[in-house]
Design a protein that fits this description.
This protein has about 280 residues and is an alpha/beta fold. Helices cover about 40% and strands about 15% of the residues.
């Protein structure tokens, strides 16, 4: 029997309706609209699409998302100037640095220039450290936070489960592994150089894939009945494609997210949630 397809759009829409009420209440009490600035360097196709989706999510909730696009050949010093300017702007509650950056720009240096309370995508070393420590002040990265939200909403119990995370980036894979551990799952972290990736995948009740390689995970890598979350964003022949070979894996898994329409919509909702949190912090609340 084919897997149940997890409708990320519908689940995110329901959560967004709840969050919309919180945003309206915040605006009514404070006269301030929660605002994020998306900082993008260059015009990567995936980044442009993602920014457009973020704007739509924020607009629907009554919040503001603006974009600051810098040319692909910009120098690191100029990017840092813009980050510091946004840090100093009290009307900007959140800053989101979009990946990937063009070759030659130091991701870690630029990301860590964002003030942690404005780091609504949880990319600074400070927020990653707070997340690892289980500190409530952490801004959890929106993509893995969205994945955890999906698991809760579809009734998948992380506690006591075996989870495999394919991908070790500090944006998705590692923070997701930390969140699953905090939720009392036993976690294996893999990547494209793992010797027997198929065996690691087949051991998992929850298989999360964020390796950045289209169709990496095939049917023989999935435990029958497993829940599969695909965080992949790849363009193949102009078509958005995940890291999971969907047509194969849907015949094996118990539940699976499609690409598009799976983890992405909930990511945007979590980014809005973090921006509202940042706005509250900015007002001392």
């Amino acid at each position: 029997m084919a897997a149940k397809i997890i409708d990320g759009r519908a689940l995110a829409s329901a959560q967004l309706d709840k969050l919309k009420t919180e945003v309206a209440d915040f605006i009514s009490k404070n006269g301030v609209v929660p605002s994020v600035t998306i900082l993008r360097v260059g015009a990567d196709e995936g980044s442009v699409t993602y920014a457009r989706q973020i704007r739509r999510t924020f607009e629907r909730a009554g919040a503001t998302a603006s974009e600051l696009e810098l040319p692909a050949d910009v120098k690191a010093d100029q990017v840092l100037v813009e980050v510091r300017r946004l840090n100093a702007n009290s009307s900007v509650h959140g800053i989101m640095l979009q990946a990937p950056l063009p070759a030659g720009l130091p991701w870690r240096v630029i990301a860590d220039a964002i003030e942690p309370p404005k780091d609504v995508d949880g990319v600074t070393a400070t927020n990653l450290g707070l997340l690892a420590a289980g500190d409530s002040r952490a801004m959890a990265p929106a993509t893995p936070a969205g994945g955890m939200a999906l698991l809760r909403l579809i009734g998948v119990e992380a506690a006591g489960s075996l989870a495999t995370v394919v991908g070790r980036s500090t944006v998705v894979g590692l923070p997701l592994a930390l969140m699953l551990i905090r939720a009392h799952s036993t976690v294996t972290v893999c990547h494209t150089r793992t010797p027997d990736l198929a065996a690691a995948g087949r051991s998992a009740d929850i298989l999360c894939v964020a390796a950045g390689r289209a169709n990496l995970v095939r049917a023989n890598m999935v435990k029958p009945g497993a829940t599969v979350l695909d965080f992949g964003v790849n363009f193949v022949d102009g078509k958005l494609t995940g890291d999971v070979a969907f047509d194969e894996v849907v015949e094996v898994a118990g539940q699976i997210t499609p690409v598009p329409g799976g983890t992405g919509p909930m990511t945007n909702v979590c980014l809005l949630e973090n921006t509202l949190k940042a706005a509250r912090l900015a007002l001392g609340g």
